[in-house]
Amino acid sequence: MRETISNQPSSQVEKQKNKTESLDFILEKSKELGPEMIENYREIHENPELGGEEFETARKVKDYLQNLSIEIVGEGIGGSGIIARIKGKEGGPTIALRADMDALPVQEAESNSPRSQKDGVMHACGHDSHTAALMGAAKMLKELADKGELNGSSILLFQPSEEKAHQKESGAVQMIKFLEKSGLRKNIDAFLGLHVFNSLERGQVQLKEGVQLASSGEVDVILKGPGGHIINAYDTPSLHHIFSKLTLRLEEMFKPMEKKEEALVASARTKYAGTGYNILPAEAESTWVVRVTSPHFKEISKSIEADIKRIANEVVAEHLKEIKEETGRTDIGNVDILIKKRPGYRPVVHRSPELVGIADKSAEQVIDNYQKNEKLLMGGEDFSFYLENFQGKEIPGVFAMIGSANPEKGYPKTAHHTPDFKIDPDAIKDLAALYSNFTVNAIEYFKEKRDN
Amino acid sequence: MRETISNQPSSQVEKQKNKTESLDFILEKSKELGPEMIENYREIHENPELGGEEFETARKVKDYLQNLSIEIVGEGIGGSGIIARIKGKEGGPTIALRADMDALPVQEAESNSPRSQKDGVMHACGHDSHTAALMGAAKMLKELADKGELNGSSILLFQPSEEKAHQKESGAVQMIKFLEKSGLRKNIDAFLGLHVFNSLERGQVQLKEGVQLASSGEVDVILKGPGGHIINAYDTPSLHHIFSKLTLRLEEMFKPMEKKEEALVASARTKYAGTGYNILPAEAESTWVVRVTSPHFKEISKSIEADIKRIANEVVAEHLKEIKEETGRTDIGNVDILIKKRPGYRPVVHRSPELVGIADKSAEQVIDNYQKNEKLLMGGEDFSFYLENFQGKEIPGVFAMIGSANPEKGYPKTAHHTPDFKIDPDAIKDLAALYSNFTVNAIEYFKEKRDN
Fold it and tell me: Which pLDDT tens digit goes with each residue over B272-328?
């Protein structure tokens, strides 16, 4: 590229030179920091903490940042969230980088290494790697800033409670409120969120314009029946029967929407009250996740909720009618239907094609065998809130899913949220480099935009 | 009846007079003891204990019997079982009376009174009333014996662990072993077991010759799949889908057998591992109770078990095939099927029509508005073991279900094993009177049989 640079005006040449130097620094530094980041990842992985309780993780992050003389501007946010700031050139653009810190109520497979040392809690979604990567990126960006090579500022968001999946409990919402209240938010030009993604191999990155991730939300179907002894299983309203039928009916109705990538409506389980195998439960519940890939997610979600309610009513009515006909009795007891809607996360919408382009280019520069994947994903993410209008201001941003499987190295495509989940730890380097490189490139983009 | 008696030979007259006096005594005494029995019932109801842990209940029973100078011949049997003996006329027949003492893991409804004072444990099947009734019967029979009016002996069986529902854990089996080892069993002429039954109103008694209660036993269907994130619900083997389909298919297959009173094959619930609504479970299990009303229950149970296994295999295969076709993928993961059979209780078989006749007559004499109901019941009962061949000896007996609902008095037909279950406490008097009256009548029957 040097040849072409020589023909450009000197300020342009200087800029390009800076950028090339920054990129070289990031590439070199992210390799050098690899072992340290993997060690931090291992420690966090072994000591997973559920959403809102990431106290030890936050303490570790804070100690690390303070050792680097990075300014902590907020802590204990939403329980344990930490916000820090790296100041580069005065008056330059500000890019906010987000990593989530929470683990899940999953019992880790014994064969995993590193492995959770806490029974029933596991980093089964990779947030440990996000935290470790953002710690590494912080070190790089601080060094760039100290060298006078960062033309703006970086806000580091170590966020709690991403997995809660409801707006009320969302760690992102707490972080945004703090940013707004503290006056930090008004200066932020863009947000970047990264997530490891085990459905893709290292090198592949899921990233697209428009809707990147679906909205989330749930509908709880709660039924209360008379219950009873198992000997009356065929003479009494049976919640096991009703939920079996309801599950199949709803799946039949909603599977085509999933195949067309319009929405995911699915349920992982039905929970029955009590435990006795010979006691017909008097209450049971199944949660249907509703994820919509359209900006009109609110209307579509409403219509899906209405369908669930209607089918539940139909299945219950059919069952009661059948028992009454078969037994000739009318006093068989009733089944009450309760439908609860829980608002979830908005879809992650990339409103700025330019920022998606910068993320694409930044990833290409730092990730080996880079390949962009534009498949739409049904995973909900509270990162969406960072990109939504709040107090009259909407800030653009990007959320990218970074391939973390590496079957050849012994890291097959194990599924997120399962006991076997494990990522190639070297993927952490990819995230750290991308956090840093996107920051540098986005700062230049916004600087240029302001200058023109 | 006095008119006809005068024409009988004097020994016959004496016998009839004794019997009439005993009956009058039992009728009067069971009324008099009503409040005391209800108080004992209330105390046991408020302090329910699960099978094998009936220590406080047993202590209460033991204190009560010792206060009456009734001989305790065994205690701590199967954990907490108590066996006592009331000796009447030397060399007379011996009738063993059984009451079970265990409660269930059910959370009692707040509106019930008396109400369990233990969270999650409840006398939801009425064993508290059996224990209280047998305590009352013991008092009556001891008084009859002390007056020289009991022509034989009574063995009182306060049995633990009826609800375990498996031969290995059955309290009855422990009691029988003790009876055999202690030499008590060889002198027992008959067993009587009573159970309150809330599907019938007071006065009605379920009692029939031949098979009175079905065999019991279970088949556990355990499936292990790959699990995963809910976003893959339609691309991954889903245990929620498989169990929903399996439940409906098995119900369709086995419901006709229940309607024909041949067998009950039913499942109250499916249990899914984990709790996350957005995590596809990697393991799930449903227990199918198998209750057969034929003396050939072993062969029939085997054939039912084979059917369950076959259908489970079919449903899993269909599901895997469908996903492979829809996704065009072959690496969707597998579903392992594990079928576990658990031997339960044998059917309760009334091999002696004469004893059923004596129970019928005895009930008619002491229960107001008595009406015999001969419907076959699917409830399993470890009382069955008392009536089976053990060490080369088979002892006959009767098990009767005593109506305990009384809607007019505020005791509707609430189902056994549910939080709302409650009986009319006055039913305890019916049980106590029947325990006592059957003992008197059966002793006379066996005495006569020996004399002739």
Answer: 998 778 889 999 999 999 999 988 899 999 999 999 999 999 999 999 999 999 999
Query: Is A99 in contact with A130 (CB distance < 8 Å)?
Result: yes
Where among B343, B358, B385 does a domain terminate? B343
Give the range of the structural domain holding residue A320, as residue numbers without chain letter: 217-343
3-state secondary structure (DSSP) of residue B126: coil
Between A14 and B59, whose confidence is greater?
B59
Q: Is residue A4 part of a domain?
A: no
Q: Does B268 touch chain A (CB under 8 A)?
A: yes
| Inter-chain contacts counted by CB atoms under 8 A, chains A and B | 188
Q: Are residues B11 and B41 in the same domain?
A: yes
The candidate with the shortest Cα–Cα distance to A277, out of B344, B206, B252, B240, is: B344
| Interatomic CA distance for residues A137 and A40, integer angstroms | 13
pLDDT number for residue B3: 35
B282 with A419: Cβ contact below 8 A: yes
SS3 assignment for A378-407: CCCCHHHHHHCCECCECCCEEEEEEEEEEH
Q: Are residues A186 and A307 in the same domain?
A: no
Strands (E), A228-367: 228-229, 263-266, 270-272, 279-280, 283-292, 336-343, 348-350
> What per-residue string of b and e applies to B233-262 under the rule 16 or more CB within 10 Å gives b?
bbebbbbbbbbbbbbbbbbeebbebbeeeb
A302 vs A292: CA distance, rounded Å:
11
* Backbone phi and psi for residue B50, each to the nearest 5 degrees, phi listed first: -70, 160
Residue corresponding to tokens 């992102």? A172
Q: How far is the C-alpha of B358 from the C-alpha of B439, rounded, in Å?
A: 10
Find all residues with CB under 8 Å of A372, minimum gap 6, and list them. Answer: A204, A205, A206, A207, A360, A363
Q: Are A440 and A93 in contact (CB under 8 A)?
A: no
- pLDDT above 70 for B181: yes
User: Does residue B187 share a domain with residue B42?
Assistant: yes
Predicted confidence (pLDDT) per residue in B365-413, tens digit: 999 999 999 988 887 899 999 999 999 999 999 999 999 999 999 999 9
| Of the partner residues A241, A245, A378, the one whose CB lies closest to the CB of residue B231 | A378
CA distance A416 to A427: 15
| Chain A residues touching B236 at Cβ < 8 A | 415
Q: Does B15 lie in the same domain as B103?
A: yes
Tokens 């979600």 — which residue?
Answer: A301
Q: What is the 3-state secondary structure (H, E, C) of B324-391?
A: HHHHCCCCCCCCEEEEEEEECCCCEEECCHHHHHHHHHHHHHHCCCCEEECCCECCCCHHHHHHCCEC
Interchain contact B278–A (C-beta under 8 A):
yes
The number of beta carbons lying within 10 Å of the beta carbon of residue B25 is 18
Q: Cα(B98)–Cα(B193) distance, rounded to whole angstroms?
A: 5
End position of a domain, from candidates A343, A364, A385 = A343
Q: Using CB atoms, which residue from B105, B227, B238 is nearest to A275?
A: B105
Longest dimension (CA), chain A: 94
For chain B, the first-to-last Cα distance in angstroms comes to 25
Of A211-215, A407-411, B141-145, the range with the lowest mean pLDDT is A211-215
Cα separations in angstroms, A154 against A34, A87, A449:
21, 7, 18
Give the CATH number of the domain where residue B153 resides.
3.40.630.10
Chain B CB contacts of A416 under 8 Å are 228-229
Closest CA to B141 of B129, B130, B154, B157: B154
Identify the DSSP state of A33. Answer: T
Do B255 and B128 have their domain in common? no
Say if residue B288 is in the same domain as residue B378: no
Are the CB atoms for B291 and B341 separated by under 8 Å? no
